[in-house]
């Protein structure tokens, strides 16, 4: 019994679907290109964040150190 055009289209569609499930042959697979990932923060934002954190710490130390020094001179002197 010969295939009807409708059966032929259905068979071709099924064959394409099955071929897609199996994947491509090793010779046809393209090598993946190496992608360079971008950092989530730019250098400027990192510098600003470091300045805010370290600068705040520095100013706090400059405020606290004289108080500690005065307390030590009273205790030891």
Automatic annotation (TrEMBL):
It comes from the Eukaryota. Keywords: Endoplasmic reticulum, Membrane, Transmembrane, Transmembrane helix. The keyword Transmembrane helix applies. It is a single-pass membrane protein. It is found in: Membrane; Endoplasmic reticulum membrane. Residues 1-39 are annotated as: Disordered. Residues 9-21 have a biased composition (Basic and acidic residues). It holds the Pfam family RAMP4. InterPro entries: ER_stress-assoc. GO terms for cellular component: endoplasmic reticulum membrane. The chain crosses the membrane at residues 45-65. Interacts with target proteins during translocation into the lumen of the endoplasmic reticulum. Protects unfolded target proteins against degradation and facilitate correct glycosylation. Belongs to the RAMP4 family. This is Stress-associated endoplasmic reticulum protein. It comes from Aspergillus campestris (strain IBT 28561).
């Amino acid at each position: 019994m010969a295939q009807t055009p409708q059966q032929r289209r259905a068979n071709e569609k099924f064959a394409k679907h099955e071929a897609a499930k199996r994947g491509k042959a090793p010779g046809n697979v393209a090598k993946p290109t190496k992608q360079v990932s971008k950092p989530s923060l730019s250098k400027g934002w990192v510098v600003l964040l470091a300045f805010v954190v370290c600068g705040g710490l520095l100013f706090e130390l400059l405020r606290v150190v004289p108080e500690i020094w005065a307390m030590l001179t009273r205790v030891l002197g």
